Amino acid sequence: MANEARIIVEDKEYTCPIITGTEGEKAVDIRALRGDSGYVTFDEGYANTGSCQSNITFIDGEKGILRYRGYPIEELAEHSTFVETAYLIIYGELPTCEQVEAFSSRLARNAAVPNDMEHFFEGYPAKSHPMAILSGLINSLSCFYPQYATNNHQEDLANFDEVAAAALSQVRTIAAMSYRMSQRLPYIYPKKDLRYVENFLHMMFSEPYSEYIPEPEVSKALNLILLLHADHEQNCSTSTVRMVASSEANLFASVAAGVCALWGPLHGGANMAVINMLEAIHADGDDGSTFIADAKTGRKKLMGFGHRVYKNYDPRAKIIGKACERVMNNLGVEDPLLDIAKHLEEVALQDDYFISRKLYPNVDFYSGIIMRVIGIPINMFTVMFGIGRMPGWIANWKEVAEHPNGRIYRPRQIYVGENQRKYVPRDQR
Ligand code: CMC
Q: Is the CB of 235 under 6 A from ligand 1?
């Protein structure tokens, strides 16, 4: 079989090479097509466009498979921690004991935000959305670490270990501080001897004279949530990070842009939207049936359902769904929202509308219920997604920065606006 595709455009034939990925995915390489034929390809929303070659994460959406650096998500969820998985995603290999220790120490050294940055929080209104603060302050880190943020990929890569640790560690600190600011509570500073997740919970919930010590079940659940969000190939925010990185922007600027892209309800903002939806259903006294009927007519959207890539059960949702039950049982908590969520899922999975469109629960469907139980406020849910996604953004920035023949990302468009207009002076319009 020829390893090329032949495209006939208005009776003229063009040959395009075929690229095959390590999992057998095939792509028609159309990079030369415009030069040869004058035609671009059109794919609004990039649903069928491979924007890069990457060796970080593999998804088979039809089969419901997700692997980080070749390791199945199920195995990592069972055996690994967020920090170990972050190392795997960023550096490509599972760390040895010494490597993970050095990585954890580097995270601990970088946990506190620069002193002067503390004043920034005070400038924001108390009701500010923490995603706005997060993106603003992550970008501001480039002012405090100018040696890591030169906008010269070679120089930025020379300091990569340190800048990656600063981004990964401080995203969590900024998140916790923005919460404390919103509540007008004193800041709680990171402690060197606490692990990543425990340190975050400490900064969120400890008080000056009373240390919050989380139940092991709580730390375990949060570790799992972060791990399951750690990367997801070319989603909206990661593509944004790569887009910004392709202009040779530094890591802080690139991942800050990722935070902005994540904020929207069709992406990371869905976890907040799910809880708002479940609460509204509960308040209406509906068991979910009316909502499903409305979703089928397009009047409502079943948040936490559907995915651009998964046309099968999102493997992360399967793991989180089970964890949700376990956490509730072990903490002895009951939440009517969980019953509504389970009922919605049961009904949707038997309904032709959802079956024919291959709409299944995604990662956001159950994650909010766990976060609610462990005390994370709803407007912080998307921030939690951002903390979890940081390793993936960092790894993708690195991949772009290290690309030997990297080019700026710059799609084409089909112009459909007015043409050939003649300027009319203002007093004659
Ligand atoms: N509820 C009801 N109908 C839906 C839903 C939903 N959640 N999702 C898709 N559909 C329908 C959609 O209306 C369309 O119907 P029709 O063919 O009759 O026009 C069909 O299913 C195909 O949907 P689409 O809009 O082409 O799907 P997409 O790939 O453009 O969008 C999505 C994917 C995730 C944005 C969308 O499914 C959605 O809005 N889901 C709810 C928001 C959500 O949960 N987002 C989190 C995604 S996972 C976490 C992450 O990585 O961000």
A: yes
For residue 249, how many C-alpha atoms fall within 13 Å in the half-sphere facing its CB? 22
pLDDT in tens, 282-318: 999 988 889 999 999 999 999 999 999 999 999 999 9
Please work out whether the CB of residue 386 comes within 6 Å of at least one atom of ligand 1: no
First to last CA, the chain: 63
Q: What is the pTM of this model?
A: 0.95
The domain locations on the chain are 4-50, 72-266+382-398, 270-374
* CATH architecture, range 4-50: Single Sheet (2.20)
Which residue's alpha carbon is nearest to atom 16 within ligand 1? Answer: 357
> Residue 51, Cα to own-chain centre: how many angstroms?
17
| Catalytic residue annotation | 307, 364
DSSP string, 234-287: S-HHHHHHHHHHTTT--HHHHHHHHHHHHHSTTTTTHHHHHHHHHHHHHHTT--
Q: How many Å apart are CA 106 and CA 112, to the nearest integer?
A: 12
- Report which residue type is found at 377: P
CATH code of the region 270-374: 1.10.230.10
Residue 270 Cβ contacting ligand 1 at under 6 Å: yes
The CATH classification of domain 72-266+382-398, taken from the options 3.40.50.2000, 3.40.50.2300, 3.30.1540.20, 1.10.580.10: 1.10.580.10
The ligand 1 atom nearest the CA atom of 232: 51
**Cβ–Cβ contacts within 10 Å for residue 323, how many?**
20
Ligand 1 binding pocket includes 398 (Cβ within 6 Å) = no
How confident is the model over 336-379, as pLDDT tens digits? Answer: 999 999 999 999 999 999 999 999 999 999 999 999 999 999 99
| Rounded CA separation 179/270 (Å) | 20
- Which value, to the nearest 10 degrees, does the dihedral of the CA atoms of residues 265, 267, 268, 274 take? 50
Residue 25's CB is within 10 A of a number of other CB atoms, namely 12
